[in-house]
Amino acid sequence: GGGSGGDSSRKVEVRQLDTTVSGPGSLLSTAGCVHNGTAYVACGSDGNFIFRRLFQMHFFRSPPSKLHVDFLKLANDSLFPDVCFQIENSRVEAHTYLLASHSRAFRALFQILRPQLEHATNGGGSDGNGIPTIVLDDVWTPELREKLGWSRGWPRGEAVPPPARIPNARIFTALVELCYSNTLSALPSTDADAKALIELAQFFVPQKVAALVEHVANVTNSTTMVDATSLVADMSALFSDRDRTADAVLLLADGTRFCYHRAILAVRSDYFGAMYRSSSSGIFGGSGFLDGSSDVVGGSGGGGSDTAATEAVATAASSSSSSAAAAAAAAAAAAAAATAAEAPAQARPLPVFAIDDPQITAARMRDVLQYCYTGDVHVDHDTVVELLGVTNRYLVADL
Length: 399
Known about the structure:
Blueprint: E1 17-18, E2 29-35, E3 38-43, E4 53-58, H1 67-75, E5 83-87, E6 90-94, H2 96-102, H3 104-112, H4 114-121, E7 133-135, H5 136-139, H6 142-149, H7 169-181, H8 191-204, H9 209-218, H10 229-240, E8 248-251, E9 257-260, H11 262-268, H12 270-278, E10 283-284, E11 287-290, H13 305-318, H14 323-342, E12 352-354, H15 362-374, H16 384-393
Parallel strand pairs: 1-4, 5-7, 8-12
Antiparallel strand pairs: 2-3, 3-4, 5-6, 8-9, 10-11, 11-12
Helix pairs in contact: 1-7, 1-11, 2-3, 2-10, 7-8, 8-9, 10-15, 11-12, 13-14, 13-15, 15-16
């Protein structure tokens, strides 16, 4: 009982505890309290300040994002790597697109070593599985360090001298983990290891050094996120630009194509993870692999132009229903299609995975892909049921 302000003449009468509805809806909520994790909200008025309903609403804590956990797993899993670093007698397999998306220094390193990497991909200097191998003890020369320090894309104001040497595989693996997930599977065991890791990070990922220093100094649980914000930002940039480095294509029943990275989908979706680990060809769950040799995706990298066109159509389908938004989306689709017509075809074929379910729309598949890459996607009331069906089908549980 009691009223607002100092007016004690306003009394509250609770006539009904309504637990059959999900919430107050459009009625005006004017009083409420929280008790033992449950909100009790009184709402509705007949003009005499008599509340006709009391709603009981429970709080649900959404599960924490698995983004850093999954990418930490990928950093230690030999799943579709495209580069191998050899340090002394140890090997560290990795993915160039992930390292480059988080580190300008790694991006510059791959640009400098591009002829060597392309030669290895074509059969020379690889590890026997066609994966280019970078022997850091051999390539980490004064000449390479000088090129890295002044390479294009490395601002002078942020220039940090490259380390004289890469200490060992253990420290380098920790650096890869930091790049992938902003997380460490194990804290440095000694002060010397911690110092070596921080020195590497100052050159390769300077934006993460402050958080790393605080993390190493104050955190006892190594799987705690070093820094969440930069991870989402870096992965969002990779998602937007993934056509250049993608290594596979999703082909929907309506003909829409999405370029993607197999390792990311495999580690973020239990469906694709089981599929890629169990079979490299054939039919799986009503969908199947097609021979990539006849499906060449255009663009300067792994995909590009035709995928951009079809994704612009998907974006148009998922945009606001307003005429202005629809017109803008249609214009974007037309521009992407024009770019596709002008772009030269890419010679490198990509494996194509066909999804034959006509109920899987391009807009919702794009949502699933965006969440797999970034851990973040906008969901509204008009699309939630459809998106739930897709996530159940492809086992993206946390989405």
